[in-house]
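Exercise 4. Each item below gives a protein and its sequence. For each, produce the structure-token representation.

Item: methylmalonyl-CoA epimerase (Thalassobius vesicularis).
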Amino acid sequence: MIGRLNHVAIAVPDLEAASEQYRTALGAKVNPPQDEPDHGVTVVFIELPNTKIELLYPLGDNSPILGFLEKNPSGGIHHVCYEVDDILAARDQLKANGLRVLGNGEPKIGAHGKPVLFLHPKDMNGTLVELEQV
Ligand SMILES: CC[C@H](C(=O)O)C(=O)SCCNC(=O)CCNC(=O)[C@H](O)C(C)(C)COP(=O)(O)OP(=O)(O)OC[C@H]1O[C@@H](n2cnc3c(N)ncnc32)[C@H](O)[C@@H]1OP(=O)(O)O
Ligand SMILES: [Co+2]
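Answer:
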């Protein structure tokens, strides 16, 4: 079912500082910030040869990453995103295996304009897993 690693997301306390660090200290290709109000975050994608890093910063008072940053004020790895070719089939198979899908269980359109879902971290070895249909 799961395919390539699409991205690793890092929640950061300062989006500009983190972007600049990847751009200058690490020589990475850093894309401009993208507000994603439907997800309560502003994201910056950093393109690596074999995957992407997604820097996350809270957008709005109800951002789902506020709790994470309160617990991790220096930031930290927030989630990993795997690619799937059929997100509804993947969802149904995972639910049939007892895993919890977050939100109302329906995919939302993510930062790449593709449907995404999230699995509860407690069901995935303490790791928030995002699935993106490609
Ligand atoms: C633009 C879209 C973009 C894309 O790639 O396309 C994105 O990736 S959007 C990313 C932001 N959106 C989301 O993360 C949506 C899914 N996340 C959630 O619904 C919440 O973050 C949730 C439910 C995972 C956690 O919310 P919250 O921290 O407010 O809840 P709790 O404090 O009750 O946490 C429950 C339990 O889970 C642990 N936890 C929380 N976040 C994480 C995490 N990122 N990784 C691992 N574990 C996490 C938390 O510590 C609690 O554990 P406990 O032992 O009970 O303390
Ligand atoms: Co993501």
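Check: Residues 9, 36, 39, 41, 43, 54, 56, 64-65, 67-68, 78-79, 81, 102, 110-111, 116, 118, 121-122, 126-128, 130 surround LZKTLF4L (ligand 1) (CB under 6 Å).
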